[in-house]
Design goal:
The chain has 280 residues and is an alpha/beta fold. Helices cover 34% and strands 22% of the residues. The chain has a single domain, classed as 3-Layer(aba) Sandwich (Rossmann fold), CATH 3.40.50. It binds glutathione (GSH).
Length: 280
């Protein structure tokens, strides 16, 4: 899968480069964009990468412009690989009513099995296989990887990190911890995966974690003033799964923080230092 990537834009930041690329995705069957921060160290050697998965309504630019992650990534010599949240393009299926929680901007990091979604919505394989192969073939990255994300992307990071050994540590902000039992998850999985709920389990972080006897290092931060906490995120399910598995995930409530990028910007430094300590 050694395909070409084309630079769309590039800015200098903290001595490194914040770059946006586009490419034709074989897995998603459409043109995609993603962003990469290359720290200054990447001029001289291949560096490890933290993959970032964003939440509902986002593309690759929310994190690059709002999280303020570049300063610490430059210090630690970490690349940031920032993905989009769904396939894109005029022929890509979307929610018929234009809802924000299904279709464009809401791929949920699953491989859809149901029409009309399955033609493009293969985000699990895109993040696990195509994107790492693409960036490692074209950019000065070594094969050391960590994965992180926010909300729907926190769900994606936990699920992918628990299932795939290629990521050495996992972190999440405000993740959707138990999507098989919340409205966002049930709507998305019902559409993308169909009514057979057995197929949903492979994409539920709480269910995956409780079945594990060990897991990679995990750090989760959840704000107590997050409007989505009660109805959608179910951090308590992840805490119970962590106790059942004994896998030692750090799951922290942060008093007074909400669901926004101000929360992410506050704690991203701790997450990047956590990943760097596990990558080295
Ligand atoms: N639009 C939705 C919420 C969408 C939302 O909060 N998206 C989060 C991820 S779940 C986000 O990161 N938004 C983009 C941003 O803040 O830049 C609503 O109004 O209920």
């Amino acid at each position: 899968m050694n395909q070409a990537i084309e630079k769309v834009s590039s800015q200098l930041a903290f001595g490194g480069q914040q770059i946006r690329f586009k490419h034709q995705s074989q897995v998603l069957n459409c043109e995609m964009q993603f962003s990469v921060y290359l720290p200054p160290q990447a001029e001289h050697r291949a560096v490890p990468a933290v993959y970032w998965l964003s939440g509902l309504t986002c593309n690759d630019e929310n994190f690059s412009s709002k999280a303020g992650a570049q300063r610490v990534a430059a210090e630690l010599g970490l690349a940031l690989v920032i993905a989009d949240t769904s396939p894109r393009g005029e022929d890509v299926a979307d929610d018929p009513d234009g809802a924000y929680d299904l279709g464009l901007g809401a791929g949920f990091y699953v491989n859809a099995t149901e029409a009309p979604w399955k033609a493009h919505y293969q985000m699990y394989d895109y993040i696990v296989d195509e994107l790492p192969a693409l960036v490692e073939a074209n950019l000065p990255l070594n094969q050391q990887r960590a994965i992180s994300g926010h909300s729907m992307g926190g769900h994606g990071a936990l699920v992918i990190g628990l299932r795939e050994s290629k990521f050495s540590s996992i972190s999440a902000f405000s993740p959707i911890c138990h999507p098989t039992s919340c409205p966002w998850g049930q709507k998305a999985f019902g559409n993308y995966l169909g009514e057979d709920k057995a197929s949903w389990r492979q994409y539920d972080a709480a269910l995956l974690l409780q079945e594990r006897s060990s897991a990679p290092p995990i750090m989760v931060d959840q704000g107590t003033a997050d409007n989505f906490l009660e109805q959608q995120l179910d951090t308590e399910a992840l805490i119970k799964a962590n106790q059942l598995s004994g896998s030692g995930a750090q799951i922290r409530y942060q008093q007074g923080y909400d669901h926004s990028y101000y929360f992410i910007a506050t704690f991203i430094e701790e997450h990047l230092r956590f990943h760097a300590s596990n990558l080295n």
